[in-house]
Amino acid sequence: MKRKLQLVVIGNGMAGMNAVEQLMKLTDSCDITVIGQEPHPNYNRIMLSYVLDGSKTMDDIVINPRAWYDEAGITLHTGTTATRVDTTRRVVVMDNGHEVGYDRVIIATGSTPFILPVPGADKQGVIGFRSIEDCDRMMEAAKLYKKAAVIGGGLLGLEAAKGLVQLGMDVTVVHLPDFLMERQLDEKAARMLQTELERQGLKFALGKQTQELIGGERVEGLRFSDGTELEAEFVVMAVGIRPNVELARASELAVNRGIVVDDYIRTSAPDVYAVGECTEHRGVCYGLVAPLFEQGAVLAKGLAGVETKPYEGSVCSTKLKVSGVDVFSTGLFLETPECVCVTFHDAWKGTYKKIVLKDNVIAGAVLFGNIDDASKLERLVKQGAEMTEELYNELTGAGGCCGTKANAAADFADDDIVCGCNGVTKKMIVDAITEQGLTTLDEVKACTGASRSCGGCKPLVEQLLQHVLGDGFEAGGSKQGICGCTTMSRDEIVAAIREKGLRSTKEIMNVLDWKQEEGCSKCRPALNYYLGMIWPQTYQDEKESRFVNERMNANIQKDGTYTVVPRMYGGMTTPAELKKIADVSLKYNVPLVKMTGGQRIDIVGVKKEDLPSVWEELDMPSGYAYAKSLRTVKTCVGATYCRFGTQDSMGMGALLERKFERIDYPAKVKFAVNGCPRNCAESCTKDIGIVGNDGGWEIYIGGNGGIKARLADLLCKVKTDEELIEITAAVLQHYRETANYLERTSDWVERIGLEHIHKTTVEDAEGRKQLVARMDEALSSRSEEPWQQVISDKGLRDKMFGKVVFQQ
Amino acid sequence: MAINREAAWVAVGKQDDFMPRVGRVILINGVEVAVFRTTEAVYAIENRSPHPKGGPLSEGIVSGHYLYDPLHDWKIDLRDGCVQAPDTGQARTFAVRVEEDSVYIAVM
């Protein structure tokens, strides 16, 4: 048997692992060892901003979990630093004294943030923004401190600053040049960007040179060269990166700013390669992700002995990953005497487009506000395309309205990268489409990973689908169904249920031509909800179409046990109930009893087969903690006891909870009722938040304290309890009838508009009456208390919860 | 002594003991088996998700001969336990025989 090539990769980051992945696709002739300094599997560094703004977790951005290394047969050393490559003895030396022999080595040590060498830079509270640990530090700091400064108004600095603003800090971006992102944008685009970011709460100190970080042991502020100062309890340095070259130096490789590599990604020593941000190629050190994939591709082919074109450098394109800001730049972006620029600035729509031509070749572009043409321009710049009348018309929208829009993705070469986050090439996508018969963006996403992360390449993937499938593909997502089983939207389905009088999920799927006969885990619960909402009196709920929690009437935990939350109207309980909860918890030996955020008690870790007995012995109604339904009404003590209280919040809370519980809503619904504007029960983060005052009640809607926090909007003020109940009923019913399944009120309010809800439920008295009547119909036909139902139905109890044991 | 490698059939109940498209757990010789009566047939699969984080399968949503993992939404073929793309893996399955309304599961 042929001996396998021993490949050692130093660095477990994106660059090294991408090269390995590309290599493994080409050949299995290598034994691979990876030495990583960080104590965790590798993750997608460009997604760190999302971790910071809370939209993704660490788990979401892991590229290759540990199991992947095992499966691929890769030996992974984490928490270990390689110190030197001994090119004479052909071994890699590690800090723990061990050595690994190699036939080939890839150095992918990446880069570290550059810390300005100013006095005070070593104070506590000063960090770079580069790793998951930095994210953690920033999140910690946001809890303890208020004022932050970010030094550096480039890509990373702005993303860090926006993240800190979202964490609730008061953030000033300090930048030496007079405008932001000067390495990617011209002044015009930069000013537009600044205005937009100021609107989002960022502050700026431009043209300021930081001379010193002041304070005691911990940083307290910045002093600038003009003598002015800025208060800051937390400082993030994002002024650039420094390639990590210590190992290369110790190994006596050629090093300038980065490790010098040639057009085949080779260093100065034989069989030693270097890839990614630690390298310098033709005098350029890259700090972006696209070059890393391009270098990785050339390197992988070289190692696998596949013929490859040399790497001739990358055209750098930039997109800012800050929500609500669309900025893009590629190639040349500044006007110079030898350049001609085509520019459009629309101050009304807030868009800007500049295309830079050099000798009539498209050499670069800047887009702001509307970046639809980004991938096309990136492509044209890479190709060095010449500007033609036709291209001009296409790019500027001039020359007629409905010219054929060219398909940028179709012009890609097979191994051009479409998805920069996950390194997915055009060929991988096209192959997946043709070989696996994919027809939708979601399928491509699922099969190849393209557009799974930041989503920036979605238009390109759609173009590829269009390109491969021709007319068979309906673009734009307008024809995206509620799931892979249908192309129909929620509204079309609901209309069809009403018009055609469809009465079961099976009937819907038959009549509306579902692709998978019995649907999937996405559409079945949705259809079950819509049917119940439309036919409240007659629809027979389908247990088998409910998510596990709603089917079992308890919340499943990761180990398969459940939690039980009994109903306590308005968050009030009695000593007798507490005693029962304690007795049952002891008898069934539950590992944990916990208070919930909604003023309830959570009995955690109940075995499935014990659930019915636990419910029976508690003898309390279900708290619906598992349901897309009214979960909790949180109340303050209110006028009954509180010296500030102006209204009976506990009484009203319990009344509302009894009135609106136990029917299905599109998603979970939480209320709060407060006795005075001090708002101790936190109305602002509830779906329905009610605040009492001397003359009546205020009704707030659409608040949310979850993954995407949103403060509730004031819908109206009412004088009497009757009005309060009536308007609440109308809003809830309107929500039931118009929201998408799983859409929380916070998203619903934003989608259909507060004004519209106000018109329908407050201004239009007649419409309101009808909504209330339909709500009453739903309430009058609600089913039996679910726990009681199981307790009293022996068959159901055994079939759903019983455990049958056979022993031979 | 020859070791009997033939599967032993265990009678686990009547068809009606299994609600349509709602899983039920049967413990056979210490192994948790999730039994599903679909519109097509009765299937038995080990009650443990092939997902790295594990968890039960019995509470998943059933569509035809597919099961959607209740905790991770992986799509699993009840006939052979194979996880459908883009995810990969396989759950252990058991042969099932339905005779005169009685359900038998094969155990080794």
Describe the fold and architecture:
The complex is a heterodimer of chains A (808) and B (108). Chain A is α/β, with parallel strands linked by helices and 808 residues long. Chain A folds into six domains: 5-111 and 243-304, FAD/NAD(P)-binding domain (3-Layer(bba) Sandwich), CATH 3.50.50.60; 126-239, FAD/NAD(P)-binding domain (3-Layer(bba) Sandwich), CATH 3.50.50; 326-406, FAD/NAD-linked reductase, C-terminal dimerisation domain (Enolase-like, domain 1, 2-Layer Sandwich), CATH 3.30.390.30; 417-472, Orthogonal Bundle (Arc Repressor Mutant, subunit A); 490-546, no CATH class; 551-774, 2-Layer Sandwich (Sulfite Reductase Hemoprotein, domain 1), CATH 3.30.413.10. Helix content of chain A is 34%, strand content 21%. Chain A is built from 27 helices and 37 strands. In chain A, the strands form ten sheets. Chain A has a five-stranded parallel beta sheet with strand order 3-2-1-7-19. A five-stranded parallel beta sheet of chain A has the order 9-16-10-11-12, with helices on one face. In chain A, strand 32 (630-635), helix 21 (649-660) and strand 33 form a beta-alpha-beta unit. In chain A, helix 12 (426-436) packs across helix 14, helix 20 packs across helix 26 (786-792) and helix 22 (721-738) crosses helix 25. With 108 residues, chain B is mainly β. Chain B has one domain (16-107): Rieske Iron-sulfur Protein, CATH 2.102.10.10. Helix content of chain B is 0%, strand content 42%. The interface between A and B is large, with 37 and 37 residues. Strand 37 (804-806) of chain A pairs parallel with strand 2 (24-28) of chain B, so a sheet runs across the interface.
Summarize the structure.
The complex is a heterodimer of chains A (808) and B (108). By secondary structure, chain A is of the alpha/beta class.
CATH superfamily grouping of chain B = Rieske [2Fe-2S] iron-sulphur domain
Cα-based radius of gyration of chain B, to the nearest Å: 14 Å
What is the count of β-strands of chain A?
A: 37
Major sheet: arrangement of strands of chain B: 2-3-4-8
Oligomer: heterodimer
Which percent range fits the helix content of chain A?
25-40%
Task: Look up the CATH topology of the largest domain in chain A.
Answer: Sulfite Reductase Hemoprotein, domain 1
CATH structural fold name of chain B: Rieske Iron-sulfur Protein
Cross-sheet strand order for the largest sheet of chain A: 3-2-1-7-19
Number of domains of chain B: 1
Keywords (chain A): 2Fe-2S, 4Fe-4S, FAD, Flavoprotein, Heme, Iron, Iron-sulfur, Metal-binding, Nitrate assimilation, Oxidoreductase
Pathway (chain A): Nitrogen metabolism; nitrate reduction (assimilation)
Domain NADH-rubredoxin oxidoreductase C-terminal (chain A): 317-384
Family (chain A): Belongs to the nitrite and sulfite reductase 4Fe-4S domain family.
